[in-house]
Amino acid sequence: MQRNLLFLVVFALMALQMILSLFQIKRYQRELGKLRGTGTIGIGHTKGGLKAGQILIVSYSRRKDQVVAYRQMKGITIFAGFKTKEIMLGKSLSDLKRIGLEEDAKEFRRRRRRHPYDPEEMTKKKGALIQAVESIEKRLAVEDTQTENKKRMLECTGQLTAKESM
């Protein structure tokens, strides 16, 4: 009887955790929806374990060369919500990267002694801010490549039509 009660309690707690996790996922999706269209979005996260984990959403405007939105969810429980860090708004991407590297060095102090930070390394742990900055940089690089390819295509097309008209 007590064993059945124990299993029932454990099952109820797992179900409650699942339901509350769905609320947290909805909050995350809502925040992403609010930031859609504000600029290039970068997302980073760190798992907390016994300390607070975090999810970070950064929106960067290339035209303004500044951060236009900075939302951080930090905490141990599923009741943590997204908060705006006003101090990060208006910073350039290079400033954000410098701050991210400093935070990464503090957060992963022991790990960085053995494994120095490498932007190309995908398997090593990194701080949430540096993850967000790296994802923004990659998206901007892809946009640059696509723009260059479009220009080349237009140049080739323009040259072909000029030759055909002669």
TrEMBL record:
Classify the source by domain of life. Answer: Bacteria
* Name used for this protein in its record: Transcriptional regulator
Q: Which organism is this protein's natural source?
A: Eubacterium maltosivorans
